[in-house]
Amino acid sequence: MSNIKISDNSLKKIEQLYQQAGVQVRYGKGNFQAGYCLLEHKKIVLINKFYDTEAKIHALCDIAEQLNWNNDTLLPEQHKLLHQILSEQAAKRNKNSHQEIETSTSSDNNNSNDI
Q1: What pTM was computed for the model?
Q2: How far is CA 103 from CA 16, 98, 106, 114, in A?
Q3: Which of the residues 18, 63, 104, 105 has an alpha carbon 20 to 30 A from that of 94?
Q4: N- to C-terminal Cα distance for the chain?
Q5: CA–CA separation, 19 vs 12, rounded Å?
Q6: Contacts of 8 (CB under 8 A, 6+ apart)
């Protein structure tokens, strides 16, 4: 996340964003990837508690794309943070797509030389 500072304060702001939207953020121990689930109609995000601050922030930002956000419940500063997170996630996804295309094109060119 290039524009989101990696700090405990940033993590707290992201957690508050989730809380304001009615999504519980929980930290648990175990050998699992961070994720989002719907448990008895309760929105819960589960993050590995052994992740460092940076990994927690990245996990929460990745999960943000999967949620249906009700912007009416968010404070203006939270709305701005959500927009920033979603914009950066979209940019990251586009960058990865372009890299995959370049890799695929490069592989195709190499394979055509084998004929």
Answers
A1: 0.76
A2: 39, 9, 5, 17
A3: 18
A4: 43
A5: 10
A6: 53
Among all chains, which residue has been given the structure tokens 């009615």? Answer: 22
Q: Token pair for residue 39? A: 């448990």
- Cβ burial, residue 82 (10 Å; 0-12/13-18/19+): buried
**pLDDT digit string (tens) for the chain, length 115 residues:** 457 899 999 999 999 999 999 999 999 887 777 766 656 678 888 898 889 999 999 999 999 988 888 888 899 999 999 999 999 998 888 877 766 666 655 555 555 555 4
Question: Which tokens hold the place of 8?
Answer: 């405990």
Note whether 56 and 11 are within 8 A (CB): yes
